[in-house]
């Protein structure tokens, strides 16, 4: 067993770190203040990422990506997690569910997404269907040879910049011994399709500038060519491709926690009260000790889960553990950071209050902490017949 | 033409250095090490010369501990074509002195016959600022130190140098040794495809003994000390307050 990084991995980490420090950090305060990313800046970040060959680095070389392993990609995400999500969004990592594109879909969606020409967003959640994805009300019915979609999606991240959307819609219902069960199909929907509107969403306390929008479908007509995967095969594509995105959330949480921790550590080493640096009080140093222990634990949990995926080992339970622990760790570490800073920690002169706010959503999106615990529990107990 | 770029593995510029308890030097155990920033500028300049068609091959050389291999991989990932590692120390705390480095580089140059050596003006660890100059003396080559701008024109190089109080432009005969100053260029990030390619590029490993150079230190470090800590500042609320504080302090 070897816990070190290879030379390549070290270089990937240091390149992405340097990129985030030089190209992202300087613009964070403005994005926080205005709540938006200037389009020129977005283009600039995208252009530089493309130039560096990091754009869509999670995609295999056959489609123009860099073919990073899950582990290497987790290292990239960990570094990106240090920076503002509104900005790192343009260090593009399209949803790898696009690998399910077939035939003409590859030229229209997959390849332009990898080349940075078209951006995607993913829409599952609805006002009445969050954790319970299958409870969705958005439906598509057959009409002639087409599908006609009606319904609403909300909380759709990056929808303001997206050129097309991967939308999950109910396409029927089966009767099962446990009651009726919806069949789900994934569709590719272009911005501007008649009957489809993107509306401004809510204002979130986390990740200002990384907008979430509301999508409305009002008799939106889609041909069969827009079906991603098989008709009624929505859960299949979801389970094949969206499985690993939770590692991304965990890895970003670890990166952000380290940045918050470093601020707190240096503050503790420099701030003087009662005639000495506050780091000399165990009340402070023990908080730092606990925090770094938790960060390391989350880091290894995350990398180990990614490694399992690379080895082709079952990883559902491990990914859930990593997502659960890393996001909850981030909440504790950012809270600790503010405590160590005292009153100044709450002020927007320092980024800590932002990390603390941003941390909140990580325990909710991509499956809430409760849903992760549910997955872990089920994976443990189901084999025992419970 | 071939360019030789010596690169040194040094303590990362972001690391807050600590002096070892016995005062024998700076503590390097478990600290982040990186390529000397001036050497990064030299690698960048060499790659730009190659991109401009003035140079065919960029060879990076590092002299030090075995771990300097990582530094060479970084140079390769930036775009150098191949690398030579000369292992001359086992302990990260053993710094190879400029004269020994210059002698080793002179031997490498005998073998490689580059038309240009691009080196950093100094290493940020010991700030010696001597290797390029010593190498020039050993080889009898021309030198242009502290370059702010480099242009290769046939068998000459026109180099704008940063000197006290301004810029000086010199024309030197090739082969020559140019050392880089901070404003020469802004080094690129290693691109992902180049990072992946770096492992496949050749990296020769040698030892100081292979070149018959004695690297034993000629200098003795008598003492290393932390710089004196600055006294805490004071925030003032207005210009008037500032002026009165300055008067109080007797400086205006
Ligand atoms: C800023 C933001 C961006 C988002 N971006 C996207 C996006 O791009 N695309 C997208 O499709 N979705 C997105 N989401 C939606 C996100 O995935 C959901 O918010 C999440 O799945 C939870 O759903 P919900 O908010 O409806 O909460 P609910 O599902 O209503 O949950 C409410 C509470 O009940 C708990 N709960 C629910 N079911 C159970 C259970 N079985 N056992 C125990 N507890 C349970 C939950 O854990 C939670 O505490 C985003 C959300 C936010 C906040
Ligand atoms: C919004 C806001 C409004 C405020 N309003 C007022 C006001 O109206 N009037 C006023 O006078 N003040 C006010 N304050 C100041 C407030 O009382 C201080 O912020 C508080 O006393 C902490 O001081 P500090 O922020 O300088 O943190 P510090 O004293 O620097 O503390 C930093 C960290 O070190 C820890 N620490 C310090 N000493 C020790 C020790 N001996 N042992 C263990 N841990 C230690 C602290 O617990 C904290 O975690 C306000 C603060 C805020 C944020």
* Biggest sheet overview of chain B: 9 strands, mixed
Assembly annotation: heterodimer
Instruction: Tell me which ligands are bound.
Output: flavin-adenine dinucleotide
Neighbour order of strands in the largest sheet of chain B: 9-8-7-10-6-1-4-5-11
Mean pLDDT of chain A: 97
Number of domains of chain B: 1
GO molecular function (chain B): electron transfer activity
Subunit structure (chain B): Heterodimer of an alpha and a beta subunit.
Cofactor (chain B): AMP
Function (chain B): The electron transfer flavoprotein serves as a specific electron acceptor for other dehydrogenases. It transfers the electrons to the main respiratory chain via ETF-ubiquinone oxidoreductase (ETF dehydrogenase).
How do you describe this structure in short?
Chain A: Belongs to the acyl-CoA dehydrogenase family. The complex is a heterodimer of chains A (386) and B (252). Chain A is α+β, with helices and mostly antiparallel strands and 386 residues long.
Describe the model.
The complex is a heterodimer of chains A (386) and B (252). By secondary structure, chain A is of the alpha+beta class. Chain A folds into three domains: 7-95, Orthogonal Bundle (Butyryl-Coa Dehydrogenase, subunit A, domain 1); 120-232, Beta Barrel (Butyryl-CoA Dehydrogenase, subunit A, domain 2); 242-384, Butyryl-CoA Dehydrogenase, subunit A, domain 3 (Up-down Bundle). Chain A has eleven helices and ten strands. Chain A has helices spanning 7-34, 39-51, 70-80, 85-88, 104-114, 234-241, 245-270, 282-311, 316-341, 352-362, 369-381; strands at 120-123, 139-143, 146-157, 164-176, 179-190, 196-200, 212-222, 227-228, 272-273, 276-277. A four-stranded mixed sheet of chain A has the order 1-4-5-8. The two termini of chain A are 35 Å apart. Chain B is α/β, with parallel strands linked by helices and 252 residues long. Chain B contains six helices and eleven strands. In chain B, β4 (57-64), α2 and β5 form a beta-alpha-beta unit. Chain B has one domain (2-249): Rossmann fold. The model of chain B has no long low-confidence stretch (mean pLDDT 94). Chain B has a nine-stranded mixed sheet with strand order 9-8-7-10-6-1-4-5-11, with helices on both faces. In chain B, strands 2-3 form a two-stranded antiparallel sheet. In chain B, α2 crosses α5 (192-198) and α3 crosses α4. The chains are: A alpha+beta (386), B alpha/beta (252). At the A-B interface, α1 of A face α2 and α5 of B. The site of one flavin-adenine dinucleotide has 13 residues of chain A, from α8 and α9.
């Amino acid at each position: 067993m070897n816990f070190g990084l290879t030379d390549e991995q070290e270089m990937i980490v240091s390149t992405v770190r340097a990129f985030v420090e030089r190209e992202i950090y300087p613009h964070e305060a403005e994005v926080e203040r205005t709540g938006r990313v200037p389009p020129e800046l977005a283009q600039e970040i995208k252009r530089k990422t493309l130039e560096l060959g990091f754009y869509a680095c999670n995609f295999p070389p056959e489609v123009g990506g860099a073919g990073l392993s899950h582990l290497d990609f987790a290292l990239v995400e960990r570094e990106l997690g240090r920076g503002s999500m509104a900005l790192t969004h343009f260090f593009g990592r399209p949803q790898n569910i696009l690998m399910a594109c077939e035939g003409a879909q590859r030229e229209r969606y997959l390849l332009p997404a990898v080349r940075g020409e078209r951006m995607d967003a993913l829409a599952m959640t609805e006002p009445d269907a969050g954790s319970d994805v299958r409870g969705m009300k958005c439906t598509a019915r057959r009409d002639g040879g087409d599908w006609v979609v009606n319904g609403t999606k909300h909380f759709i991240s990056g929808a303001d910049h997206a050129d097309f959307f991967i939308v999950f819609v109910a396409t029927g219902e089966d009767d099962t011994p446990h009651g009726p069960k919806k069949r789900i199909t994934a569709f590719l929907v272009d911005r501007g399709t008649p009957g489809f509107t993107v509306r401004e969403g809510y204002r979130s306390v986390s990740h200002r500038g990384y907008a979430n929008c509301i999508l409305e479908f009002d008799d939106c007509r889609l041909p069969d060519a827009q079906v991603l995967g098989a008709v009624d095969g929505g859960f299949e594509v979801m389970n094949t491709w969206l499985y690993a995105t939770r590692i991304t959330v965990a890895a970003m949480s670890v990166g952000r926690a380290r940045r918050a921790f470093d601020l707190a550590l240096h503050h503790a080493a420099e701030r003087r009260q009662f005639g000495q640096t506050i780091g000399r009080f165990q009340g402070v140093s023990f908080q730092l000790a606990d925090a770094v222990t938790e960060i390391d634990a989350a880091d290894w949990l995350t990398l180990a889960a990614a490694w399992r995926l690379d080895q082709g080992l079952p990883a559902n339970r491990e990914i859930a553990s990593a997502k659960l622990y890393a996001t909850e760790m981030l909440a504790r570490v950012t809270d600790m950071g503010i405590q160590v800073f005292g009153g100044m920690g709450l002020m927007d002169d320092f980024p800590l209050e932002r990390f603390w706010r941003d941390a909140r959503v990580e325990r909710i999106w991509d499956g809430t902490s409760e849903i992760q615990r549910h997955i872990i529990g089920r994976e443990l107990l189901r084999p025992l017949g419970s | 033409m071939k360019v030789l770029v010596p690169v040194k593995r040094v303590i990362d510029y972001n690391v807050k250095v600590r002096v070892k308890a016995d005062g024998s030097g700076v503590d390097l155990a478990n600290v982040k090490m990186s390529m000397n920033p001036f050497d990064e500028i030299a690698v960048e300049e060499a790659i730009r010369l190659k991109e401009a068609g003035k140079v065919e091959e960029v060879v990076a050389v590092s002299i030090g501990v075995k771990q300097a291999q990582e530094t060479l991989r970084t140079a390769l990932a930036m775009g150098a074509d191949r690398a030579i590692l000369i292992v001359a120390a086992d302990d990260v705390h053993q710094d190879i002195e400029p004269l020994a480095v210059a002698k080793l580089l002179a031997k490498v140059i005998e073998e490689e016959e580059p038309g240009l050596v691009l080196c950093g003006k100094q290493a940020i660890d010991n700030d010696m600022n001597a290797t390029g100059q010593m190498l020039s003396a050993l080889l009898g080559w021309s030198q242009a130190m502290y370059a702010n701008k480099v242009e290769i024109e046939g068998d000459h190089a026109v180099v704008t140098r940063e000197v006290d109080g301004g810029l000086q432009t010199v024309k030197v005969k090739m082969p020559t040794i140019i050392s880089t100053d901070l404003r020469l260029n802004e080094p690129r990030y290693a691109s992902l495809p180049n990072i992946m390619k770096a492992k496949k590029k050749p990296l020769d490993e040698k030892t100081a003994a292979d070149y018959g150079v004695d690297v034993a230190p000629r200098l003795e470090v008598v003492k290393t000390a932390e710089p004196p800590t600055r006294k805490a500042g004071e925030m003032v609320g207005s210009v008037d307050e500032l002026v009165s504080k300055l008067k109080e302090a007797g400086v205006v």
